[in-house]
Amino acid sequence: MNITVRPVHDTEWDAAARAYTAALPHDPISGHELRKRDEEQRAWGYVAGVMVAVDAGGEVVGSASYFQDPGAYHPQRFTLEFAVVPQAQGQGAGAALWNALDLCLCKAGAQSVRVLAREDHPVAPGFLTRRGFVGDKRYFTSSLNVTTFDDAPYKALDDRLALLGVRILSLADLREARVPDLSRRLHALMSDVRGDVPRAEPATPLSFRVFEEAVLGDPGLLPDAYLVAGHGDTLIGQTVLFRSGASPDLLTGLTGVSRDWRGKGVATALKVAAIRAARTLGAALIRTDNASDNAPMLAVNDRLGFVRDPASVSFMLRY
């Protein structure tokens, strides 16, 4: 193929997002979401960019983003999202994209870069391995059919937690109640529960600005499905559902519980409440992803009936 690789044009955000979503439908993104993330990265002072691969007819057949993870920040470590539409794979578009990205990363002084690839993908693992990437950490994407989920077996759990004084409220409920310093308290809760979540790179503190803009300001955030567990005035756990503009499926953000409350069923109750919220919102499917060594959360999802896709592997290239 005759491929040109260049930075995305202002008129191409939707096309770049469609190319990515076509190749990776389990990880959908809209043009608005892609552009917002890129703009936020730059506003936070991070290095980021979005490239597109365009064929001779002017069609975007691939897209790639490089950026720095605010929750695992290092000035020389990058995350890469990289995809070519299925009909153009194996014809040189991916190689052209990578060559351009490699130059950008070298200029940015990259020490390393990570990218996820499904282990059953016909092209991606070999493509990355040939370019020096090494796979290490594995993740599972799982999905649950909301329409067939039976929540009756979990009513006893709800009652038991209620006797302990635990209640689950949505962001919409908390806003309606005008809870003081709500955003700060939610930020503190997320900062507390995310520290023990297994990840490919060490966690770093998530600033309040990033939390406010990237989480509370996410256009796909669903206030009725951002759920927190509370005990008295203390917030002890959370789970969050988002909806991308590129898919009707709901996507799970961070689910976590404070250390003192783990092992008591709070995470399960939060997930069940999220499934009920998804049903009320008319969603048919919830997607989530977890590191393969996050045994407690994987066990919760398995009990609830989430069905795992083939694993995705985090591939890393050191410069």
Short summary of the structure?
The protein is of the alpha+beta class. It is 34% helix and 29% strand.
Explain this structure to me?
- It holds the Pfam family Acetyltransf_1.
- This is Putative N-acetyltransferase.
- Residues 3-160, 172-319 form the N-acetyltransferase domain.
- One of its GO terms (molecular function) is acyltransferase activity, transferring groups other than amino-acyl groups.
- The chain is globular.
- A hairpin with a 6-residue loop joins β9 and β10.
- The protein has helices at 13-23, 31-43, 93-107, 124-130, 155-163, 171-176, 182-193, 208-216, 266-280, 295-304; strands at residues 4-7, 49-54, 60-67, 77-84, 112-118, 134-145, 166-170, 221-231, 234-243, 250-252, 256-257, 285-291, 307-308, 312-318.
- It has two domains: 4-110, Gcn5-related N-acetyltransferase (GNAT) (Aminopeptidase, 3-Layer(aba) Sandwich); 142-309, Aminopeptidase (3-Layer(aba) Sandwich), CATH 3.40.630.30.
- The mean pLDDT is 96.
- Helices cover 34% and strands 29% of the residues.
- Strands 1, 2, 3, 4, 5, 6, 7, 8, 9, 10, 11, 12, 13 and 14 form a 14-stranded mixed β-sheet that branches.
- It has 319 residues and is α+β, with helices and mostly antiparallel strands.
Key words describing this protein structure:
319 residues, transferase, 2 domains, Aminopeptidase, 34% helix, 14-stranded mixed sheet, single chain, globular, alpha+beta
